[in-house]
TrEMBL record:
One of its GO terms (molecular function) is formylglycine-generating oxidase activity. Residues 40-443 form the Sulfatase-modifying factor enzyme-like domain. Keywords: Lipoprotein. The keyword Metal-binding does not apply. The keyword Lipoprotein applies. This is Gliding motility lipoprotein GldK. The lineage of its organism: Bacteria, Pseudomonadati, Bacteroidota, Flavobacteriia, Flavobacteriales.
Amino acid sequence: MKKLIALTATLSFLISCGSSDRGELVGVRGKNWRPEKPYGMSLIPGGAYIMGKADEDLANVQDAPTKTVTVRSFYMDETEITNSEYRQFVEWVKDSTIRTRLAILAEEFEKKPGDGGIGEFAFADADTTNQSAYDKYMYETYYSVADNPYEGRKINRKAKLITDPQKYPDEYYVEVMDSMYLPASESYNGQRTIDVTKLKFSYAWMDIQAAAKDKSKNTRTKRSKYMKKEQVEVYPDTTVWIKDFAYSYNEPMHNDYFWHEAYGEYPVVGVTWMQAKAFCAWRTLNKNAYQKRKGRSQVNSFRLPSEAEWEYAARGGLESATYPWGGPYAKNDRGCFLANFKPNRGDYAADGALYTVEAKSYDPNEYNLYNMSGNVAEWTESSYDASSYEYVSTMNPNVSDNKNKRKVTRGGSWKDVSYFLQVSTRDWEYQDSARSYIGFRTVQDYMGTQVTGNGSGL
């Protein structure tokens, strides 16, 4: 018995000596963490505000009665997502698609790095000589037995893609690149065009709302039941400039607006709600890949703002204002318009712009957000229900209904009258529809010390 007590005491002493907590409850300590302001975003300090129409409901829609609600702090893009920013997404998808096709063909024909041809683009885990125990386990346990044996494989991003057809290294490379373009019979003016239907982004997400309401006790089954996989064509629909306006000449916008550098800093349009969601998933993936390489903590997901968040941010801390600048007028004291919209019937250019303007135009609101009214309307995360203000929570209100395909858009656009520019005006569009006057901006949840717009941080 004495020996047992002595052994226990010795073990306790050794455990205590091997730790720096001196036996106290100090918690698990990780790396020091400091909030990092995302590039191009402003911090919107959370707080309470009166959501809904403070002015007369001229359109008599009666879908926005006033209601005091509170939202948490978040970051928001200072501008709408631009053509240049969205092209970064499209180029990443194109690059990844080409590299994946090259890697698959290299594997099928057993081509390896060092042969000077397509083998240089083989999957990063194709060379098993230096494969880590983790990669070997994942390959043998998951990838080799999956329905799609290439899903989850690491593509080789180190090898530089060859874009000059005269320098393609072998016939396999030619085959892959040729498959990315429209057939020669569909080309004109001596130019072959990328087949944009090949540019698809795949991502997964979990329907936490539905999972939380599931009363099943089998957690694993419940989780897999609500995991969703999406595959979205990412290229904007440039034909919206034609389809949105019958009997109108807008071919120059269709031809040049998205890809030409002249419009690089203009807001992207022609994107559906689903494409905007895919962009958010990619932006999160892209940022966290960088964080991982640098050994840093992962960041919160980028996402679309809820309808309540959008309105709170648009108000810029001004209570019951009509517009982001206060209002109730769309002109300043010098008679200059304060946003890009259609001031008069048939007169799109009275405000100085026929179509959209650069994303960083006009003066920002008090949260340093540009064009929260006008230029392009913006997708939000929320589903549209005319009576939703009657039943949503007063804390971070949001209607997230996957069965409701009508999604809220806010802010009005270059082709709208001033009523739609009011921060409380609600509008909607179907989630699979793309328009020449709808774009988006993203938000990211704020982590760390709570800050509010109604008082000092705690």
